[in-house]
Each structure stands twice: as C-alpha cells, then as structure tokens.
Amino acid sequence: MASMVSTLSAIVSGLPLFRKPSLYAHSNCSRLVYPFLRTSFNPISAHLSSFSKARAINSSGLDEDLVVLGIETSCDDTAAAIVRSNGEILSQVVSSQADLLARFGGVAPKMAEEAHAQVIDQVVQEALDLAKLNEEDLSAVAVTIGPGLSLCLRVGVRKARKLAGTNVLPIIGVHHMEAHALVARLVERELKFPFMALLISGGHNLLILARDLGHYIQLGTTIDDAIGEAYDKTAKWLGLDLRKSGGPALEELAREGDPNSVKFKVPMKQHKDCNFSYAGLKTQVRLAIESKSIDSGIPISSASTEDKLARANIAASFQRVAVLHLEEKCERAIEWALKIEPSIKHLVVSGGVASNQHVRARLNEVVGRTGLQLVCPPPSLCTDNGVMIAWTGIEHFQMGRYDPPPPACEPADALLDLRPRWPLGEEFVEGRSEARSLRTARIHPSLTSLIQASMERQ
Description:
alpha/beta; 12 strands
C-alpha cells in the first residue's frame, strides 16, 4: 500500500455542531439523471433554486460555519482534506504513489487508478478522524473532476458522490488548475482579484489572468510537454532516485553542477507569445546525456566521481534554461496582463514545480522588475492536495455554485461527468499560436465560458 503522509494543520477542541444546509430531501433510488452526471451541464454552476437558497444561507451568516471535504485524485496522489470557510485547515492527508513512479519511470494510468482505489476510503476516513468529525458534520463535498487522467478522476468522483449521496450533502465539481490558483487566497487572505497566476506542474504550464472567481483569461499554455514532465524525464535519464520525485531529485543534483557547462538553447525564442514548449529541450538533454555516455541504468549513487559531475552539470544546465524559459514568457505575460487590468499587484506561482526553490528565486526577480509581489503557497499546498480542492469548493459554494446531493444508491455504471481536458479560461487573442498542435481528443468548454453562460441564464 502506498505510504501515507498526514498533516494536521489545526487542532479542533471538542466536536462542534456544524450546521449543514438542509436544502434537499433524501433521494430515493430512482433512475433520475442528476445534472452533475450530464456532460452538457456545468457541474459547478448553480441551479436557480440552489442559487437563491445558497444566497439566503450566506446572508444569514451560516457560511462561516461551512466545513467542506476536498477529494483529489487527478493523477498520482490520493488526497483528502477538510477546511472551514474561515480558512482553518482541519486536516490534510496525502497518500503518495512514489514507489509506483520509481518502478514504472512515470505515471502508469491503470496502476495509478488501482492505487487510488486501494487507499481512497482510508485517506478520506483519516481526514475525518484528524479533524475529529463525522461525515454528517460536513456541509458539502468538493472533488476534482478535471483536468487529469480519466481513470484516476473516476475514483475520486465515485467516492465523493457516494459520501455526498449517503449523507445528503451538496457536491461541488472542481477544476484542478483553478484550485492551484485559488489556494493562494487561503494562504494570503489579502489576495484580491484581479491577479496573475503561473501554474506549473508535471502536466501543465499555464499563465492566466484571474479577473474574478470563475473568470479567467489564458495568456499562455504549453504546446507540447510541461516543465514538470521535462524535469521528471531528465531525472530518469540521469539515473536519479525517482522515489523523491523527479523534480526535487534533479534540483538537488543541480546544486552540485555548473549551470553554464552545457549550452542548451532556450525554447521558442523566436515566438513573441506566452506559450511554452519543453519537448525540444528534452531532446537536447537526451543528446547531451548520450554524448557523455551516461548509463541511466546505473544509479547516480553507484556512478564514478567523473560521471556524477557530468550528470550534475547536465542537471544544472537543464534547470537554468528550463527556468529561463519560464522567466521570459512570464515577463511578457505580465506586460499583457497589466494592459488589461492595470490594478494587478500579485503574481501567484503554484503547482508542483512551484516547490522548486530555484524557480521561486528566479521568478521573484521577475516580479521585482515589474513591480508585482510574488505569492507562493507552501510546498505542501503546491503539490496536488485536498486543501486546494476543499477551499475552491468553499469559494464557489458561497457564490451558490454547487449541485444537489446525488442519489443515495447511485448505480455503479452511472455516467460520470469527468473532464480530462478542460480549459480554465478563454484564450487571449494575442496569445494564440499557430504552432499549437491539433489534438483530436474532446475538449470541454472552458470553466469561464460555462460560468458566464450560467450567469446570463439567471
């Protein structure tokens, strides 16, 4: 079973009685298709009746008593957390799949799904136990529905729907990347809209302008591989211990090398947009490793002194160029964003790669040159976690954006609304790139467009 790391961020004295919005009666086991199951419906947009009732709850002050469970299974970590609407983190639990990553050299979707299924019940129960709460004490359940790996998303959504249905709880479908951005508002309570965000992880490079809750403009994205994936592949090729995860292992090795020893080219210098590409840099790294006759099958711990130095130099040179690519695109995106929203004062950097201290240091210099302030969540909230899902659920719940409880005995073959490819915002016209590869997989309408359409209907 995957190792489990638990963090209790706040101590709950006694067992308080949390009032739960009694919006819905218990559902019978009919074959009614609930909106959260329909792929044509925005899972976090409000029904008119739900919207008005939620407003009534907020106006009465009950939102201060909201206690939300967040469930995250979009990729390779099984996470759950319980957060109060005043920002208090009652519990946080993460079950890592580091051993699987090391064994397969990356995420194997089917194996990841099985690992999630094995621990999901235990992770959620431990989150409840650490918070000293029972399921019936919750106000709502928030769960990641996309983007991510379908097989993995399904495990979390099924658990969330079962728990919500059994306990007659509202449910909030959460956009994974929005959660990475909004968790900064939990950490820095003075962070107001509008702000900029750079979201960097194993699967995503995303530059957005957050104009309001649920209203985002995409300034730049990756056209092929994300920076986290490039870190992971480079770490694998250099024979590093992936149980630490590729990014931290490579960052540690890079400290021992010369960042100017290998002359890698910075990607996309000729493109005057804010999009990212790491596929070409990965190719450069692979060729450099081959030219040094480095055998990835030999762990770095067993390599000769000369071999270790060669690996460290490649690691340091890769990191310098990979982060320089971030700096250049980020600086341009800030210029664009300030033209749209001159009142911007903050750049949020979040996602797994935001835990990298070299990345933070370099981006802090970028914002220093542009007059903004850098906001980075602590490392435990940068990597995938349940806190960010619960907090995003709270923010949307307080706006009336949630769905009614699922049926208490939903059939096992029910069609779930999973969104593996789900844009966060509409693409900024100046940021569109002809170099973007055409993909045939279905892409759902962006979160921003769905929320705006819902607001217009109201």
